[in-house]
Amino acid sequence: MLHSHLTTLNAVSLILDTFKTEGVASEVLLAGSGICGADLSRADTCITTNQEMRVCTNAVALRRDIGLELGQRMHVSSYGMLGYALLTSATFGDALRLALRYPALLGTLFELSLEEDGQRIWFTASDYRENPALTEFNVEFCLVSLKVICDDLLGHPLPLLGARFEHSAPDYRARYAERFDCPLQFEATANAFAFDRYWLDQPLPLADAITHRAMAERCRKQNTEFTGRQAWLGRVRLLLAAQLSAAPGIDGLAEQMNCSPRTLRRHLHDLGCSYQELLDELRFERAKQLLGEDELPIYRIAEQLGFSETASFRHAFVRWSGVAPSQFRL
């Protein structure tokens, strides 16, 4: 999707580790994502959310309820400097408000908020705009991981008063009770869990003012750098998306970005992608959109995406999705 932004490898690494114990090769989970082993060995590698979602799609195909397990493994220490800044906050409320200030560092796909409801506080995840087929997975992953963060900050489980989910109850509903020890509501108007507002003023056991100030400042700088890189990649994606019928090539795109091809390649590599991967990603998203509209014949779609031959488009689409364009359209 064109609004795809940057994120870390945290979730991808977690997925690989989780399935490794079940004997699933990393190549199976990374298929179609453009992520390779070398990327995983670099601590500073950034990937796009589209790449992350490709790995998640592969994981869900193997286990539909995997989001509940993955969320349980996302401890506060998984968030680097932000995690330490949260742990050293003075109170539970201070930590949560700091987390909401830096959604890019959390890597969330939702708009997070704390909503007052009398004596209750609802920790809400809204405005999901990623792959609709992964909605339930991402809701489960998000809310469970947020609950784990809360437990880690307090040093004990945060007592919950209720949990709500916009989707219908899945056939593995019983597993929800393992993660949310409270009344559950499905087909609700929001995705959220509630706790007593009393906890917002609860001092944290690992609070340390000096360490917190240092970590909070590093988070501010990291967030500025991270969002700047997101904005740069967003400009590249928009330029390329507007020229799919006649892609400019790495040299032409570099000229449009007012830099040399070498600089463009280096920046894209640092962001965990390449010109061809971006072009394929944008073509795939546009192809799915056009095939879904069911108006243009496949040869016209191939032309709009810059393929000189329909057969080349068919081969590319099979590589991206695993099925032919005609099958996808059914």
What does this structure look like?
- It is a single chain.
- The protein is of the alpha+beta class and 330 residues long.
- The chain has two domains: 6-210, H-NOX domain; 242-329, Homeodomain-like (Arc Repressor Mutant, subunit A).
- The chain contains 17 helices and seven strands.
- The strands form two sheets. A five-stranded mixed β-sheet has the order 3-4-7-5-6. Strands 1-2 form a two-stranded antiparallel ribbon.
- Strand 3 and strand 4 (120-126) form a beta hairpin.
- The protein starts with 5 loop residues before the first strand and ends with a helix.
- The model has no long low-confidence stretch (mean pLDDT 90).
- It holds the Pfam family HTH_18.
- Residues 234-330 form the HTH araC/xylS-type domain.
- This is Helix-turn-helix domain-containing protein.
Rounded radius of gyration (Å): 21 Å
Side by side, the strands of the main sheet go 3-4-7-5-6
Q: Measure the end-to-end span.
A: 22 Å
Low-confidence stretches are none
Corresponding CATH architecture of the largest domain: Alpha-Beta Complex
Pfam families: Arabinose_bd, HTH_18
InterPro entries: AraC-type_N, Homeodomain-like_sf, HTH_AraC
Protein name: Helix-turn-helix domain-containing protein
GO cellular component, one term: cytosol
